[in-house]
Amino acid sequence: MNRTYVKALRERLQDVPFSPNNKVLDVACGVSILGKVFGTDVYGIDTNKEAVKAAIKNGIKATRGDVEKRWAYENDFFDIVIASHIIEHVVNPDHLFLEAKRVLKKNGILIVITPNLAAWFNRVLLLLGFQPFFTEVSTVDKTLGLAPVRRLYANTSPLGHLRVFTPGALNDIVTLHGFRIEQTGTMEFGSFPRVLALIDKFFARFPSLAACMFIIAQKL
User: Fold this and answer.
1) CA torsion angle for 72, 76, 79, 85 (degrees, to 10)?
2) What is the reported pLDDT for 112?
């Protein structure tokens, strides 16, 4: 996640206030650029040893851990939990929501960011009989079934997407686990050539058609 993307995302997440008193958890944090826009006391968890080292250098209290297991934090500890582009990678998304709910304080904020299975370009691809973006049928090549657009990929290595959500499905799983949705929004894909990027920016105005989506939800 680069700084330009984080800046654009922060502009859309204005309802989440920055406070130096916020305790923030960035789930699958990577180098954890995003966590710092909400607070100065930022924690992170990631399976990647090098990512954890980089996050620590960035001033994050990062540790190695598997988000599919119990998180090594106390109950009611965080003000904000960020799950950015991780829910599509986990085997058990319900566990992720239950752990987020456990470690959040009452009225704490959960931010979820993920691709949209129902994005405008996926609808076109499916209509033409091709595999939609963000879904992967191989552990070797993520572009299988995408013959018309394979040239757009410089790197064909799979990302490990297991669960891809529509806006309705994301809303449903968030509310299922005891969160109240405060805000929903959209993001562009960010990896298209110029012409497609302009089209994608247009469709980002429409929540059901946008490439990526986010939810801000409050623990009840």
Assistant:
1) 50
2) 97
